[in-house]
Design brief:
Length: 203
């Protein structure tokens, strides 16, 4: 029989394993549920962030009465949700991104990284309709705000900043000078959009 200290250590190990199993089952359950509860759907201030699996976030349809160009970026609202994780995008406006579909619908993302991830999934799907094809991509200028076409932006990868999901992310800048100044303070490297897409692993 082991010493008291060994028995405590063994019990602690069993507890941690059990706790890990409970957490894993909880995450699996969220992935499988996907549907938004009535409370979550009506409470934009909720901190709940859903994962992508099974989650259906509809595109914001184009409103001709707005007088806005069909392919222009759309303003964020409290109800705007990330099409990858379900996060309320307006909670982190300096990271926000969006794409415009061929049918005029807009999809929002809590960061440029999630926009790229969504497009990678979209491109791999054989059942995507022509209406859902991407015609424009916009990211937010991390420094000054405002929408910037993704192809015109400068992205910083591998910096020491955390994105909305509290993990490594990719801030976007309207000018190369701003992006390079950011790397002086936070590290990382500057990439254009096509290079950013090519640098990420396939999903």
């Amino acid at each position: 029989m082991g010493t008291g200290a060994q028995r405590v250590s063994e019990r602690r190990g069993r507890y941690l394993l059990a706790l890990g199993a409970v957490v894993a089952l909880g995450v699996w359950g969220v992935r499988q549920t996907g549907a938004l509860s009535g409370v979550e759907a009506s409470a934009p201030q909720s901190a709940v962030c859903h994962v992508a699996s099974g989650l259906q976030i509809p595109a914001m349809p184009y409103d001709p009465a707005s007088g806005r160009d069909r392919n222009a970026p759309r303003p964020l609202t409290e109800a705007s949700r990330c099409s990858v994780c379900g996060m309320y995008v307006a909670r982190h406006p300096r990271w926000a991104a969006q794409l415009i579909q061929a049918d005029g619908g807009a999809r929002f993302f809590d960061s440029p990284l999630d926009l790229v991830r969504y497009q990678a999934t979209l491109g791999a799907a054989a059942s995507v309709s022509t209406d859902a094809a991407v015609v424009r991509r916009y990211v937010t200028d991390y420094e000054g705000g405002g929408w910037v076409p993704a192809e015109a932006a400068f992205f910083v990868v591998d910096a020491d900043v955390l994105g909305p999901m509290r993990g490594p992310d990719v801030p976007a800048f309207a000018s190369e000078a701003s992006a390079r100044a950011f790397t002086q303070a936070h590290g990382g490297a500057v990439l254009r959009f096509d290079a950013l897409v090519a640098s990420l692993p396939a999903h």
